[in-house]
Design goal:
Elements (H helix, E strand, L loop, with lengths): L13 E13 L6 E15 L4 E5 L6 H8 L7 E6 L2 E2 L5 H8 L2 E4 L13 H11 L6 H14 L16 H13 L5 E5 L7 H18 L2 E6 L2 H7 L2 E6 L2 E7 H6 L4 H8 L40 H5 L5 E4 L2 E3 L9 H6 L1
Parallel strand pairs: 3-8, 3-9, 6-7, 7-8
Antiparallel strand pairs: 1-2, 1-4, 4-5, 9-10, 10-12, 11-12
């Protein structure tokens, strides 16, 4: 009896390969380029359908630039972005526009991201009508009512203006707008950082429920690891324009493999006040993205750095099943050095 061939693994919804975004520095209006800000410098990851990947790191590490470059709100310097296997990083605007309905964003500030002159009904109707997703007023009304139900706001709130809502309610409107065109991927750019703690939990729970219901994928950009732990499936840790570690949530929080990830996790508050955690205090400041350090970009602050770290840049490689890290400490040839540190 012959064995049936194995089904090929499903292709990720989003694939990002060696993405770079370098902003030119001009010293004057008529002067040439004097340098570059290496905001994103070779980032690769993928997101499956119905999955949440969280992109975390300190402010200024390039997280938001990654999200905006994936969406083509800013143009990439190099690299590839694929949606369902189709490259979108080099598509002309005419061909990109139909794909924009599949990729939406929820911004950090739920007030400035909403047009204060439009009622909620008009804000939510705009993407639906722009992409021709409703053929009649009745169908449009049904879609709008369904959106309000999904984000747990009363339907009559559609007749109010954004300033009449609280911050959490405005963010629910932002989420409804992202869902309006039937998106497959939502990029949440610090979507809960401006909200109170209790409201953060409500929005995170709402996103999780919507993901279960609709199968939407999320790129959740945040610096708050306590929130990330509750919403994500996998975590990618960024430092100075590069990803230094990727793993599933359980593995990364239980056994981080990069010194920078260890330092970030050591700062996360624990629920039990009697539990002691060894806080890792990193020395110095984050280097400038204009002149990043040679070798490993973290070596200037790493407590385990040795000579190789200063001259050779580590690559992101498998260090445990499903876990990738860019650190020379996981090279078998340098284990004695790592122990000595």
């Amino acid at each position: 009896m012959t064995q049936a061939p194995a089904k090929p693994a499903a292709r990720p919804l989003l694939e990002v390969n060696d993405l770079k975004k370098h902003f030119p520095i001009r010293s004057g209006f008529l002067s040439g380029i004097s340098g570059y800000v290496y905001a994103v410098d070779g980032v690769s990851f993928s997101i499956n359908r119905g999955e949440t990947l969280s992109l975390v790191g300190e402010s200024g590490c390039g997280k938001s630039t990654v999200g905006r470059t994936v969406l083509r709100l800013i143009e990439p310097t190099a690299g590839q972005v694929l949606l369902d296997g189709e490259r979108i990083d080099d598509l002309p605007a005419r061909r990109l526009r139909p794909l924009r309905r599949r990729m939406q964003v929820v911004f950090q500030d739920p007030f400035s991201s909403l047009n204060p002159r439009l009622k909620v009904r008009d804000i939510l109707a705009e993407p639906i009508t722009n992409f021709g997703l409703a053929t009649s007023k009745g169908e449009l009304d049904d879609r709008l009512a369904d959106l309000m139900d999904k984000v747990r706001l009363p339907r009559d709130a559609m007749n109010r203006f954004p300033h009449e809502f609280s911050g959490g309610q405005r963010q629910r409107i932002g989420i409804a707008r992202a869902l309006a065109p039937g998106s497959d991927l939502i990029i949440c750019d610090e979507a809960v950082s401006a909200l109170d703690v209790s409201v953060k939990a409500q929005i995170v729970n709402l996103l999780s429920d919507l993901q279960d219901e609709l199968g939407v994928s999320l790129l959740f950009i945040s610096h708050d690891l306590a929130i990330v732990e509750h919403i994500t499936h996998r975590v990618a840790v960024m430092y100075l324009g590069k990803i230094v570690e990727i793993a599933d949530k359980k593995t990364l929080f239980a056994a981080p493999k990069h010194p920078y990830t260890e330092a970030l996790l050591s700062a996360v508050p624990v629920p039990d006040p009697t539990t002691k955690r060894n806080r890792i205090i990193l020395k110095g400041d984050v280097p400038s993205p204009i002149r990043p350090p040679s070798g490993c970009r973290f070596h200037t602050r790493c407590p385990h750095a040795f000579d190789r770290c200063k001259v050779e840049e580590p690559t992101l490689k498998v260090v445990a099943p499903g876990q990738f890290a860019a650190c020379h400490l996981h090279d078998p040839a340098v284990q004695p050095v790592a122990r000595a540190a």
